[in-house]
Amino acid sequence: MKQAIFALLVSGTYAFPWVAEQPGVDSSLFEARRAHKRQQTGEGAGGPATCPFNANHVAASPVTSKYPYNNAKNGLPGNGKGGFQVPATGDTAHAFVAPGPNDIRGPCPGLNAAANHKFLAHDGITTFNELVDAQQNIYNVGYDLALVLAVLGLTTADGDPVTEKLSIGCDATTRTSVNPALTGSEPGLDGHNKFESDASLTRNDFFTHNGDDFSFNGTLFGMMDKTCGSNFDVSGLSLYRKQRWHQSQVENPNFYFGPLALLLYGAASFLYELMPSGTHGYAPDLATISSFFGAEKQSDGTWGFVHEKIPPNWTNRVSPYSGTDVNQQIKLGPEYKNLGCPTALTK
Ligand code: HEM
């Protein structure tokens, strides 16, 4: 059954079929992508030569009857009922543990935090089932959206559909691939112009930073905080996305903003839809967002990095965040135009 889902989803526009008709999106790029994928060569900052290797791979800590969370297991639907604390009081199996030098982290703060709390394998080599379960158990992502994101991660960003393994960061082909000679390189989520794109919120563009499109950039976090006025809601993030789009256009001669870059607008919505805590009135405030991004303010006012952490006493959203919900956020009318859509900017 999973293979059938893969086949449907890799057809490109299935997950977000309306994307091809959006203003500013050249839908012929879907075909171009199939014919000639623009991707890293397996060299550079996210390449295999410098990718950490942890010989002691330990799978994610499972949910238990004592600490069931959404009871999502084995890639199947969970309860879909949020509003609970994560990690639960007393659940030491999901306490924060900083990644070591042999653990892989990547461009996604949501997944980095999940690995730091062992909802995903702590070494960063994860599986389809872990991805689907963790999204439901931590963030109360709806099962439909959890599936789409996990499949996009495994296929678009080049994990391995046979082993169903994915590196949440750099190229770990030797550990994800069923057979490297057959599959070629599997660059993981750092792989550029797959899921990872230019003009990210807090990550550099691939070509302007020697392939480092995954490390947290405190200057960008500070810019986002300033633009949003420490309130990371849709209007603040819309404006910031527009600024980033413009910045990349000016600074990056290789700036590429293909159809899949629209996923970035979905990721931006995670700040105000998935990260806010019931204990903070579900406000996308600085304390919450900085914790998920691993951002810590320094005495000189700049932002340093301390690893992504679920904030203390954090309770997740009550209703599941579905595929329909995220589509609505991406398509938002006037706000959408502010999100940095190329057409909007040239008007
Ligand atoms: C299987 C599920 C997921 C996959 C494969 C995935 C993958 C990615 C990738 C590749 C990026 C980089 C995009 C870019 O900026 O170029 C990203 C960014 C992001 N993801 Fe995820 N993600 C997943 C789930 C989540 C969840 C559940 C959250 C919620 C907390 C989340 C939050 C974010 C945020 C906020 C960003 C933007 C980071 C930035 O631009 O600085 N993601 N994700």
UniProtKB/TrEMBL annotation:
Keyword Signal in annotation: yes
Cofactor: heme b
SUPFAM superfamilies attached to this UniProt entry: Cloroperoxidase (SSF47571)
Domain Heme haloperoxidase family profile: 92-328
Signal peptide: 1-15
Keywords associated with the record: Heme, Iron, Metal-binding, Oxidoreductase, Peroxidase, Signal
A UniProt-annotated Pfam family: Peroxidase_2
Family in the record: Belongs to the chloroperoxidase family.
Protein name, per record: Heme haloperoxidase family profile domain-containing protein
Organism of provenance: Rachicladosporium monterosium
